[in-house]
Amino acid sequence: MDTQDTLEGMPTRLFSCTPTKLDTWLSCPRRYRFTYLDRRPKGFPWAHNSVGAAVHNALRDWWSQPVERRTPEVAESLVVKQWLIDGFRNDNQAMEWRDRAVAMTTAYVATLDPDDEPAGVERTVSTATHGMALSGRVDRIDRRASDDGGEELVIVDYKTGRRPLDTDDARSSLALAVYVVAARRTLRRRARRVELHHLPTGTVAAYDHTEESLERHLGRAGDIAREAMAAQSTWKERLAPLAEDAAAGDADAVEAIDAVFPPVAGPGCSWCDFRKECPEGKDQSTALHPWSGLAD
Ligand code: SF4
After folding, report:
1. How remote is the CA of residue 270 from the centroid of ligand 1, in Å?
2. Is the distance from the beta carbon of residue 177 to the nearest atom of ligand 1 less than 6 Å?
3. Which of 29, 156, 174, 185 would staple 140 via disulfide (CB 3.0–4.6 Å)?
4. Exposure of 239 by Cβ count < 10 A (0-12 exposed, 13-18 middle, 19+ buried)?
5. Does the CB atom of residue 35 touch ligand 1 within 6 A?
């Protein structure tokens, strides 16, 4: 179900979504259709996603260890255990990157206090607001002392990509703002700070949200959700039966579907999982190797 009733008898319906789903609609409605409506299988796995998944899973498992086992050595064994070889050029490259993943993860956990139990690890949080039933999974939710001597939650997102991050990235992230609001509701505690922990450089990009900045994000999210919800309704009512004809090359069916789910093609299509089946995306971008997202 993509929509749900708010309360029995009320006409307003909530659009069930995650920040990723909203971002997908915003970046390319055709990609949204392929992902959430057609549910097409994705293309080849990316090596940088394998690195990210192994590091995230290892950090999740690290926090589930007894306190005395929350050490860099255990982190190393967890990365090795969680390692994935999908998307690498060959075994040598996979092993080189496993060593890099071990190095960044052990260096990172060496900066953590094992006794500082998080409020949540890979915790799902949710809230209903601005016409949406929003949910998402947060890498880590810390408890920190607040300025007034109390305690507040901090949203922590791990990053393993090659680009270092700054305050603007933390401030402008729709997902992180949504997590603040959803964590408040789910854990019933104060929250305003978001942090991007970039493991390859050991840096933290942080931003302290205000009520105004959160409202701006939620208002924007609500606008995106309304558009996506309307398109989704049109899909169900009118366009879904045309999908087979469109796939077979029927120009009228393609045109009708593209009018509601237009492609937004550009150089970024190189990273799209559906590039191979998207003529406009192929025209506007270059083909990449599955390992192209790894740092030099
Ligand atoms: S290749 Fe580009 S235009 Fe095509 S679906 Fe993907 S993001 Fe959209």
Report:
1. 9
2. no
3. 156
4. buried
5. no
